[in-house]
Amino acid sequence: MPRPIEALIHTRALSQNLQRARQAAPDARVWAVVKANAYGHGIEHVYEGLRGADGFALLDLAEAERVRRLGWRGPILLLEGTFEARDLELCSRLNLWHAVHCDEQISWLAAHKTQVPHRVFLKMNSGMNRLGFRRDAFRAAWARLNALPQVDEISLMTHFSDADTAAGITQPLADFEAATADLPGERSVGNSAATLRHAADARVAADWVRPGIMLYGSAPDYPEHDIAHWQLQPTMTLRSRLIAVQALHPGDRVGYGSAFVADAPMRLGVVACGYADGYPRLCPTGTPVLVDGVRTRTLGRVSMDMITVDLEPVPQAAPGSEVTLWGEGPGGSRLPIDEVARTAGTLGYELMCALAPRVPVRTVD
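Request: output the structure for the sequence above.
Response:
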């Protein structure tokens, strides 16, 4: 039989999380962000669950081609725009909308030969200092684009660096409003955190929201709020099984570096999952895990192919028992990915994206 680890992608949960974004911003259209291979879930695996979106937003042309091959005929937005002039040829062929965040991209458009003008999203740098025109250069960039016959409609966008805090959007939003005052075109400013926390403000909901991580069942402002607070559902389950059980005596050591030492008699389970599967190596003793739906903890260091878990709360556990590393467990049990990520000092985003190619993935629901 194959190694018992697998990842499940929950189609119904994706649809529910998408609906949650619509509830938060009922008057806005929704980009389903599927960058980074749909946050590690696989674009092909999430498509059915997210096809109710108004458009798909992503980063590279290969991902855009995959979405078109799946049958999507609606808008696709390249969030980082084009990376060289010849990318515009594929944008024309696939009818892609694309961000414009620097002067070079405007120059490429000016030299591009196309029969159908492009829909572009002019991006403002409102304080994150990654991509976009600064406030004092934004209107000049808009004027350059507006003069080009290669450009059809110009939409306006920015990205918040601190939307997961109460006051994190106040100044960036004011700067964006000032820079775009009286300019025509649709607006898009709200990422997951802004959509959940601030979309009651019509300026944040705007014309388009861009939910990303919330679609995949992770809270953008964890640990202040968890997915239950935001009424989100886990969309990825990583599960395996126990492949061995050990009886420990006081003083017995566990794993590389003897990082755990038993202080009493106890049972230990060995799970077919390790950092080569994408489970974080930095997870320490005490990282939550479910065995047969019962919450317990990891013990010692994570190995390449195995982790060890405390079976004292699960006396009936034996080789073959189901282990939920994150996501939905048996009997209605659940382990949010954010909890696991926090013990490793990282975010749920990274765990999703780090799922290893050797882990089989299948959709359910």
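The first helix runs from residue 11 to 24.
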